[in-house]
Amino acid sequence: MRLLIVEDDRQLAEGLQQQLAREGLVADLAHDGVDGQHLGETEDYDLVVLDLGLPGRSGLSVLQAWRKAGRDMPVLILTARDGWRERVEGLRAGADDYLGKPFHGEELLARIHALLRRAAPQQALQLHVGPWLLDERRQCLLDGAQELALTATEFRLLRYMLRHPGELLSKIQLAEHLYEYASERESNVLEVYIRRLREKLGAGYIETRRGQGYILHPQGEV
Question: Between residues 123 and 64, which one has the greater pLDDT?
Fold first, then answer.
């Protein structure tokens, strides 16, 4: 899953980015409204955390521009604790949730996960592939008492595919949701992780469409 954090407080933004990374979530950063609007318009994000008090262009203007351009990713706005007018304006402009500053990191993570669940095509709280249950907190696969370890990238890749079961996912689409904006997204590296998942899950779960991408079949219909 790939997120965008638009926040001018660099310490806060970087701390949140690190916290999300521990949850298996990749986050890009923008520190002003101009850069934030550009990234939101040109990159494919699963969710945006948007501060309303931004330099360059206000968060409210950024949100309005995204919605006018047809960008429908979930947006969680950050406001001053007493900024109730801002919260109302943000919700009217198309925000999906809000949180007042200062906030507890655990509450922000809970709201982010709730929005991601609501936005995902696969709505089940539990994600299964074959006999395995994906444990999102521990970032591993479980089958009763048996536990199968996943690397951070394997976990992010499998979770994204499980949230889009039966869909044809291109290499570009998968890479965009695995890596940060500035990182390299080589297709052969993605193929390595697909192969590793096949080895761990067994045959019949991940279908390759040559020249198109991959399809995950949670029940092993390949």
Answer: 64
* Contact assessment for residue 63 and residue 50, using Cβ atoms and an 8 Å cutoff: yes
Residue that has been written with the tokens 């536990």 in this structure: 147
Residue type, 91: L
Please count the CA atoms within 13 angstroms of the CA of 193 that sit on its side-chain side.
Answer: 22
* Look-up of token digits 């291109």: 170
* CA-CA-CA-CA torsion sign (141, 143, 144, 148): negative
Length of the chain: 222
Cβ-based neighbour number of residue 201 at 10 Å = 20
Asked if 172 and 220 count as a contact pair (C-beta separation under 8 A), the reply is no
Q: Is 97 helix (H, G, I), strand (E, B) or coil?
A: strand
Tens-digit pLDDT profile for residues 49-94: 999 999 999 999 999 999 999 999 999 999 876 677 888 888 899 9
Nearest to 28 by CA among 56, 53, 9, 47: 47
